[in-house]
From TrEMBL:
Domain of life assignment: Eukaryota
UniProt domain Tc1-like transposase DDE: residue ranges: 5-155
InterPro entries: RNaseH_sf, Tc1-like_DDE_dom, Transposase_5
Entry's Gene Ontology molecular function annotations: nucleic acid binding
Protein name according to UniProt: Tc1-like transposase DDE domain-containing protein
Organism listed in the record: Leptobrachium leishanense
Amino acid sequence: MRTLVLWTDETKLELFGPMDQRYVWRRKNKAYEEKNTLPTVKHGGGSIMLWGCFASAGTGKLQRVQGTMNSLQYQEILDDNVMQSVTNLRLGRRWTFQQDNDPKHTSKSTREWLQIKGWNILEWPSQSPDLNPIEYLWNDLKTAVHKRSPSNVTEIERRRLK
């Protein structure tokens, strides 16, 4: 059954976020070496929110979230991306949709929208983001982006599309 699950979630990619924290040892009264320092930016330097999905067959569509996502925007993102991902990943007719219990996912309008769609929904325990395997993909994506040292949010967006 897990092979037919479409795992979904959102994440925030920060330009200078926690992935850029590094620790080095140095002797007392010794200067920092340039190679061990990072540039700093006030107020974090910007970020983008992404919605994505994957199944055992591979990654599905990835979409940037504009602004603060609400239930209607979430439904639009699902409408634009889920069935195309199901088709591309060859999940067939017996696939299952997974989402966490974020309020926009469980709102009355989203529940009604999903019921109309007729998708099989995987029941998800409350406050259990660590159970979703997509978290490992988000970590890999964030690591890959930060290794490339983007200088602005536009660069993050460009690299996301590759």
